[in-house]
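Exercise 4. Each item below gives a protein and its sequence. For each, produce the structure-token representation.

Item: GNAT family N-acetyltransferase (Noviherbaspirillum galbum).
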Amino acid sequence: MSANVPIAPVTLSGSLVRLEPLSMHHLADLRAAAADGELWKLWYTSVPHPDKMEAEIERRLGLQEKGSMLPFTIRRQDTGAICGMTTYMNIDAVNMRVEIGSTWYARSAQRTGINTEAKLLLLQYAFEALRCIAVEFRTHWVNRQSRAAIERLGAKQDGVLRNHIRMPDGTLRDTVVYSIIESEWPTIKRHLQYLLSRMEPASC
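Answer:
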């Protein structure tokens, strides 16, 4: 995040997931993951249709080249299957802040320990390696599932940006903004480790 710790592609591994630098080599598997649950039909999210997955990968890699995004492919450790995408985005090296977002999971990976561990890995790297002072999360006001997942991490709501973004279907999105700050990280880390320790193997 600074001259001493540049933000660059990295692989982050846990017991449930491995976050790999996004590559066009992941195209076929990401198409299959998006088809698991037909995720593009959720109007309040931006999960790409399988036919548009190649363009989405190109978009994310283009933002990586510009230094504003670091995209990952999410791979399950149990089966080796790719189950989604996530990113560090809106990278602010001057103020040492990032947003974790543009995340989606195949339906079969939802409501498991996969998201919890993925967020733990991303937060740990952001605070302990990149030395961020804050990590932000944003989601649609009507996306109750996403809001509940963010709050379950321990993030606090900063506010709501009214009429913030125009969605692909033309509707306007009220964006809910959450964050975790550096001083909160030790407690949040312990909280996430505790959540993972209580999960049954079958749910992971």
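Check: The chain has one domain: 12-203.
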